[in-house]
Write a structure and sequence with these properties.
Helices cover 82% and strands 0% of the residues. By secondary structure, the protein is mainly α. The protein has two domains: 1-94, no CATH class; 99-190.
Length: 190
């Protein structure tokens, strides 16, 4: 029996997203419990650095840098961004004293969600298209007939590959808000 689509496509996304938030809440709780709240400041620096480091994948993909395996850099991008996001969420904590950091956190959550959507849905759509193609060819259809049969599915997958059109501006807005947060902290810190 085939696995339901909700388990195959949606659950991994929800699990990673929920795990990120639960980890952040758990670490924040432990820091407060053991009176180590000051560590949260350093987690902000570390998390931001980790997220910035994960952008090496984007630089490699655009051929701005030449070294590094694209596959390994993609893994660094995916997991480094996730861990960095956990660290930044712990840094933010549950404080209601300024609007700019909250906007930055909101954009962080949206950026991570869009990244996870791209990771899981695009990957699964490609796998499904390849599987369907091989099934049709094995059933006796020619390559041309298979291409005609999968035309709309291929267009759909090609359109899904453009999710970066949404992910990139969200990421840039996040970067702007983080930069404004850092500048305001430097300007107004004692």
């Amino acid at each position: 029996m085939k696995e339901p689509l909700v388990f195959k496509y949606v659950l991994p996304f929800i699990q990673w997203y929920a795990l990120m938030i639960l980890f952040a809440l758990g670490i924040d709780y432990l820091l407060h419990h053991f009176n180590l709240v000051f560590i949260g400041i350093y987690l902000g620096y570390s998390g931001t650095t980790l997220i910035l480091g994960s952008l090496l994948y984007s630089l490699r993909k655009r051929k701005i840098i030449q070294s590094g395996s694209p596959k390994k850099l993609l893994q660094l991008h995916e997991y480094g961004s996730w861990v960095g996001a956990v660290m930044v969420l712990v840094h933010a904590g549950i404080h209601f004293n300024a609007l700019l950091p909250w906007l930055a956190i909101l954009m962080l959550l949206i950026t991570v969600a869009s990244g996870l959507i791209g990771k899981y849905l695009l990957k699964k759509a490609n796998e499904t298209l390849k599987l369907r193609r091989s099934e049709l060819i094995q059933s006796g259809l020619s390559v041309e007939e298979t291409d005609k049969e999968l035309f709309l599915d291929s267009i759909t997958v090609d359109l899904m590959k453009k999710w970066r059109i949404v992910h990139m501006p969200i990421t840039l807005l996040l970067a702007f808000l983080v930069l404004m947060h850092i500048i305001s902290v430097l300007m107004f810190s004692k």
